[in-house]
Amino acid sequence: MNFNKILAPLAIVVLTIGAWRQFGWAGIALAAGGVIMWILLHFTRLMHILKKASQRPIGHVASAVMLNAKLKKGMTLMHVIAMTKSLGALLTPKDEQPEIFLWTDPGQSSVSCTFVAGKLQEWALTRPAQEPPAPDVK
Length: 138
Prior knowledge:
This protein is an alpha+beta fold and 138 residues long. The chain has helices at residues 4-23, 25-54, 64-70, 77-84; strands at 89-90, 99-104, 110-116, 119-126.
């Protein structure tokens, strides 16, 4: 169960009730102002991340190996987009769960990430096949 979906609204209600009991209508106005400011901060961060991602090619990352090392189970899609500064290339049909996104680096290494309900469940690093070095002919 995702407690953030329960705790955030519960905290807002508790703070609003506490503000009402302590300061009356002025307390409710203060609590509402704080909640609106919190929402605006999150919205501004979201827009900033998406603006940066829109200026890069879809599915591009500087280093797939470094991305693979930084990923952790449970990360949100927005956090991964912020790390890569790029939208991932969607490999599954739109609005179908699980969603699989792919990021590829200039060396053709790629990271495939599987998201369920916007949370990272698993990922896999794929590297191109290495050709054996040619023998020296003297």
